Amino acid sequence: MLTITPSHRPFHTDVTVPGDKSISHRSIMFGALAEGDTRITGFLKSADCLSTMSCFRALGIDIEETEDEILVHGKGLHGLQAPSVTLDAGNSGTTTRLMAGILSAQTFPSTLTGDASIQKRPMGRVITPLTAMGADITSAAGNDCAPLKISGGKLHGIDWTSPVASAQVKSCILLAALCSGTEASVTEPSLSRDHTERMLNAFGVPVSTVLHPDGSATARIAADGVLRSPGAIDVPGDISSAAYFLAAALLVPGSEILVRNVGINPTRAGILTVLRRMGVEIIEENRDDSLEPKADLRVRYQRPEHPERDPHGDFVIGGDIIPALIDELPMIAVLCTQLPGRSIIRDAAELKVKESDRIAVMTENLKKMGADITATDDGFVIHGPTPLYGAEIDPHLDHRIAMSLAVAALGAEGDTVIRDHECVNISYPEFFDELFRLT
Ligand code: S3P
């Protein structure tokens, strides 16, 4: 339990957020499956990424850790060894779904599980396509959730159409195909984050992406690819973590923040588009267009009076941009409480199957803080601006809810108590130290 006192004075500071969670997971996975060693800098040492690391250690991969670097000794596509324990993905959906793809194509059996939240999250979305590829993978409880029992075997190719835009589903299938030496394609209704495709290309395995006129996208991996380590991977800062500090500067009058070294891959940077549509000026400095583009982001406090409105007068966030800001929607919902008029967040039903039901949990907690917010089947309707008041917050052990509402608390009247605040360790162990530096 932690008490947040509102910020009574503006802050002018800079912050360096930790490494990107999605890219950190993938750097361990690709490093392990590659020929050669991979030196990773900027790796996120949070609970989720440490779960991926411990799974690969259990699969016989030697991973060295120092203060600033991780060194993965890759064993190639066929180098993993049968684990002597049940693999534990902890709270991490990315670990569970990507590992399901890798493990389904091994020559040995394995069992993959995770914490209470993971054991409730839908795995049918990977079990079904993997089964169609010839995998033997079942949900031990028969409810399409983990624990997953996987026999292992050689899989065949597939052209899969996924009903949800999910980088985890897409990556699971691409990795299963990679480990089986077969071609495969995944079509999704909107383009989801493409870190897997970028990293496959960097490791020498051709992947193409085709964007269709209706907004859907197809990623295709070639057969018989071999992963060759490029030697080093530098993980940029996580835009999902940066979002909290950009928002903090917009909630505390007179503030200004510079968030350094933030990954701004267009398939992740939807929050920047939405902030600009709210009328917020974001200055990008020191842009670096490497494999994963990055920049320093500067935001000054401003009260958006004239967000871009649709013909009904609403500020609407929906459609193909949703996958590019799915993890930032809790923070965006808080910002919408301060926008004049009606804000509608739609096409985001995926929020219900994240670490918690983020539609229900954000609505419950923001209401306690005085917001005018209604949950819908696929998002929220929010009327603003409303003042926010301190309240007792239950994040339901969901790191992104805890961080979004801690930032809301900075701009509220009266103290806020965050229950189970340690859940931020999932993606950002130093979050509260950095947040308290602002107050
Ligand atoms: C992730 C993909 C997203 C995201 C999650 C990380 C990834 O999930 O919400 O935090 O690293 O691939 P989905 O792909 O299921 O939408």
Describe the structure.
- The longest helix has 14 residues, at 167-180.
- Strands 2-15-17-16 form a four-stranded mixed beta sheet, with helices on one face.
- With 439 residues, the chain is α/β, with parallel strands linked by helices.
- The chain has two domains: 2-19 and 236-438, Enolpyruvate transferase domain (UDP-n-acetylglucosamine1-carboxyvinyl-transferase, Chain), CATH 3.65.10.10; 21-220 and 230-234, UDP-n-acetylglucosamine1-carboxyvinyl-transferase, Chain, CATH 3.65.10.10.
- It is globular, with a radius of gyration of 21 Å.
- Helix 4 runs parallel beside helix 5 (167-180) and helix 9 (329-336) packs parallel to helix 11.
- The protein has helices spanning 21-33, 47-58, 93-104, 124-132, 167-180, 195-202, 239-251, 270-278, 329-336, 358-368, 399-410, 431-438; strands spanning 2-4, 12-16, 35-41, 62-65, 69-75, 87-88, 110-113, 137-139, 148-150, 158-161, 184-188, 207-211, 217-221, 232-234, 256-263, 282-288, 294-300, 315-317, 341-345, 372-376, 379-384, 392-393, 416-418.
